[in-house]
Amino acid sequence: MSASQIFNFFICPGGIFAIFFGLVLVSLERIAVARFQGRVGPPIFQNIFDVIKLITKEVMIPKDATNRFFFLLAPVFGFAGMVAAVSVIPVAGVSSGLGANSDLIVLIYLLALPAVSHILGGSSSGSTYSAVSVSREVVLMFAYEITFIIVIFTVALAAGNGNGAVFSLQQIVDYQLTNGSFISDPRMLPALFAFLIFMLATLEVPPFHIAENDADVIKGYLMEYSGRPLALFEMTHALKLLVLITVLQIFFFPGIAANNPVANLLWYMFKSGVIVFLIALIHACMASFRVDQAFKFLLTVPVVLALASLGMVLFL
Amino acid sequence: MDPNAVNGASALIHGPTAEVLNILSEMIFIFCGIKALFHKNLKRVFLFALVGLVVELRSSLTVDSHFALSAFLFHVFNYSIIFVLVFLVAKTLCEKAGTEKLTEMRGVARVLPRLTIPMGIGLFAMMGLPPFSSFFSKFLLVFAFVDSGKLYNSILLAAGELLYFLVFIRVFRFLFLDKYNGKPLKDDFTIPKLAPLYGLVVFILIGGLAPALAFKPFAFLSGVLGASAKGAPPLSISWPITVVMMIFGAIAIYFTGQKINNNRISALAASALCLVSMIPLAACDADIYSKSFAFLVLFMGVLQFTYSVSYMEHSHKQYRFYCFFLLMMAGLVGVCLAKDLWSMFFWWEIMSGWVLYIALIHEEDAFSVQEASKYFTYNYFGAAILTVAVAAVYEETRTLNLEQLVQSYVFTEAGAVATALLTFVFLMKAAQLPFRIDFQMHPKPAPTPISGYISSTVLKSGPFMMVKIFFVAMAAGAVSSKLFTLAQIQHVAAWIGAITIVMAASFALLTNSMKRLLIFHTVSQLGYVVLGCALMTSIGLAGGLMHFVNHMFFKNLLFLCAGAVFIATGTDRMDQLGGLARKMPITFFCFMVGTLAISGVPLFNGFVSKWMIYHGCMDSGFIGLAIVSLFGSVLTLASFIKFMHSAYLGQLSEKLQDTKEASWYMLAPMLVFTTLCILLGIFPGAVMSTMNSILTHFNLEPLAYSPGMIAYQGAALNTLQLSALLIIASVVAWLLYKAINTKTRATHVYVCGVGDLTHSDAHVSSVNFYEDAKKFIKAVVRITKKSIGLQGEYVER
Amino acid sequence: MLLSKYATKSPWLFRINTGSCNGCDVELATTALIPRFDVERLGCKYTGSPKHADIVLITGPVTARSENYLKRMLVEIPEPRVIVAIGICAISGGVFKDSYSIRGPVDKYVDVDVNVSGCPVRPQSILDGVAKAIEIWKEKIEQFHEG
Description:
The structure holds 3 protein chains of 3 kinds. By secondary structure, chain A is an all-alpha fold.
């Protein structure tokens, strides 16, 4: 790895920057929701404080945990996956991701890692609530991954522009930088909506706040975690939000502001903020589905939208 | 083909007489078959079978072919010997037992083994299985049909044999597999009394082991009668040294094992035999593709037998199991090393026919007999079609040698049909074809070592041969005919693979049995292999073959873990397990690696091959295939999470408190597979040099690679870098546990104040997982069944 | 200590009802939900699991029925933590004091750090109590890491 790659991985836009920025975005979402509800909301660095607090706390390991090692390993697993994901995706005009692996299929599998870590952790804690939430999480995953897969292939084909599919994220960005963003392409609009629904579902934001719902499964798979493992989960969640927002930008509007990395980075941060406000708006307006309703909804609406886009890209 | 033959000059009976006779004899054939299938009297069963088969033989006299007569004579001779043998044994048996009723002779073979073994051989010989003489004469007969242009008749003939197959397997089951509860009988036959029986057995075996020699007199005889036997396919079989060694070793293990009756020694001897057999394999002159598969077959054998040391410890007659397991393995190596289609077919039938059947019914309970018989029947059906297909290939090309076929393979209409039939049989062997045949090729109640072995290697012989046939056809330029093109066959095969992936994986979500779940996933993962291989492009084939190898490791690993749980707890039902990870931590660790590998998580080997397959699909422009197969991965993960939670995690039930970790004989092979799964996930380049030689062997462009990277036309996967990132991040995260603050404390889980739940009440078992997804899958199954006219939904048995 | 300065900006609240009449609980819910009192501005968040708790708000006089659950629950809350007794019942037993079914008050079972009195308590005093608890919590974090 070259020096710039190491910088990209550890400092910016991966590593430390990604964790901080992701945590700020989560707080931003909380503030936005609070404002929509007429409250003041937490400070902008609230989630960073949360993580620091969790690091100072004692770690509780359930005596009934079936396997202590896997109980502690699970959060590490998801965190590592997300750190890797942040470093392989490019940020338009700032960095191009870690060369060889900036590939859509790698991305699909890396994005599944947080869910795997929730499942492994929740399951190994030995709690009944966690088991219920694991089951819910997987049912939702079953439903939303179809949408994600179809959207990915739609984008890959659209970026190939009739010459097969393009799987490299950097090439998808480059294609849009020269030929205009996909958001201005009417064929891709249904895919954009499908992807937004997928994002809400995978981030577990209402209307898909089901697997870790406070009201019925008491934080679900996170229930038995405390202290440092929980801090890892919080950071994983923040990174996942960041990765999804970045992927959304790569897929639909990777436009750059100027020929200057710093300006591009700011522009990227601004776009991310706008997306977070959009998510917060939906969060504040919606109640949650039941798991069966969510399953039916996810198997119909976003899939049809994504397929419509795929059909248009293939045949128009 | 000789013009005279078409005119019907050489047929003995022709014209309208022949037509009437044909219809009449078909009716008698079916009537006798049904009568024999339900008759209770042992002697009459054989009598009806005799009449039926004779009537059927007569139909070969209407065939217009040069050597129909010689084939007819050969077949009549073989069958008369077999029938004499069977009738002799049946008569003695009836006298001894004092009854002629099959129902009263249940399990008589258990008390009179010396008398009934010739009967068993006779029964298998009547089915026309190798290495018995009737296998060859039956093939000649089918070839005579094909030669006279009656391809479809020959398929009917082969299918009709299925009825008689059922007759014989029923008799076998009554005599050999049921429990004996008649009056006590004494095995007091003198050697002179048994000698003629065993003499006939030897005769049958000679006909099977030296078929060319046995056929000569009949060719001569038909020449005397005025019909030459020219154009008959070559009947000689290749006997690679490795295979011969394994067969003798297997027989030696049977007899010495019977004497010393020590499981550990027999198992380790079998393991050593596999290891030693690798030496002549290294020296043999097969191509790299066949050789690497044969090597892997033996390598898996070594570990499988090591595992059996503990697994089979409390079983019975282990020597018999090892012997037939080894014979089956020898058959598989024979398939790998066969240089012509005919030897391939011979070893194919050794591998998957009666040898495997006997290994599968090892437990001898009703369920295993039922499932194994079902497998045997499906397999027989496949073999029947394979007979026709091989005959058709020979008819079109006049050679069966694979190297010569590369020059002479043709895609005439018959050639196209033959290729399609071959592909069908190979897909069936790989347990593809979603309509009910899927997992029947892989019976559940077999002992775990052999289940794992079937999954990891035996079923792979399907895609293995499919690639060879596709290569032969492509290299010979035989790619299109009036009926359909080779590309269409490949596309259909790829779609069958893709549908199988999703269908089998969804069924796995519904099941509650550990082993059935793994079997469904074997079928599903073989879908990936078939999908990749059917593309026949550089990246597609490399991906398919890579998955071929990876699946061997992780699926066998999962089977061995399931077997370890089965031995430790005695149950196969996931809802009766739970919390075993605390009692069996190493098994759980291995299981987790297997789970992550099969779901294609980065860092593990499954990911690399799946990545290549998806890229291969998109490279060939098959977007539908890519989407469907990618979705299969999610289902795989989901069903393994169900397995993981309900068996290993969650709450330990009271009944399982004394569970122990598996023994080291079981853990050692598991750890080897675990290591391989991780190593191949980080360094896929380790197998890429072999893979590239295989690609070059198939005239495809090799892929660029380094130890930790695979690249293909701009797309690249750097697993080493990816793993490094994941590991660095993990280490950083782990440091967080160890740095600022290390205080931990153990408490109970929070249950919101509920204090009166037992451990098993608090455990969420497999049946409670994924209710909505299951409902959805069941609805899909119900609608699909309704659309093809069936009732009901998925049934767990 | 720098760590404790930032850590105390994120107090997560956990409620335990030990047989209260529900009056105090309604006021606690009000504190969280009504925009006017929004506790989230202090970085607070109600959690459902005791394992996430930093500040434990206990209401009720500890009835005989709830005694064992309270004991078990207190073990499941990680250190460093602050215990706040909400309402007069939790502080002294209130009108139920010395009743046959009362095993309280709370400080029999655990050292209470902050008392917030009232029947029911007012949201303003809850916020005040939480603010006091945060100060105590800061000291506790430092003690926890030194000891």
